Amino acid sequence: MSDGPAPGGIVRDPPTRFPPLPCYPCPHRSACCAHGVTLQDAEAEPLARKYGRDTVYYVKEEAEWRTRVVGDRCVFLRDNRCVIHDDPHYPLVCRTFPWIDAETGGPYQFDRTICPEFSTRPDLVRLQSVERDREKGDAVEASSNAPETG
User: Fold this and answer.
1) What is the pLDDT of residues 38-79, one digit of tens each?
2) Does residue 53 belong to any structural domain of this protein?
3) Within a domain: residue 22?
4) I need a surface site. Which of 61, 127, 133, 135 has the fewest CB within 10 A?
5) Residue 17 belongs to some domain of the structure
6) 44: Cα within 13 Å, side-chain hemisphere
C-alpha cells in the first residue's frame, strides 16, 4: 500500500498511518454517505456497468462523474452498509475520507465532522491537525531545498 500521493498528486491507496474509524457498521447512520461522491472516470464506467447506469451521473458544469443520492444517502448504501466497499472500483474519495483529499493527495481540508466520530473523539481532530502541520512542513522543507534558478 502506498503512503501518499503518486506522481501528479493522485492518491492510489489510502495511507496506513491513520487509526481506523468505526465504519462497519457505522454508529452514526453512515453520515458521510449522505452525499454523492466524485468519481474518477476509471471508477464511474465500471460501477455503472456493474450496478446500473442510474447509479452514477455526469455533471457537465463540473466535468466530473458523481454517485447518485437517493433518500438522503448514496445509492450504494444499503442497510447502513456500502455495497461497493469491497469492489475494486470503490471510489478513491471514499477510501481516503476523512484523512486525504483524493483530488490533491494532500490532507483533507473540508468539514471532517461529516463523520460524527470526529466530534466524539477529539484525539482524531488533534491527529488531523498534526498531519496537516507535517504536510505543510514537508512542503516548506521541499521548497527550501529546491535548487536556485536564474
Assistant:
1) 999 999 999 999 999 999 999 999 999 999 999 989 999 988
2) yes
3) no
4) 61
5) no
6) 17
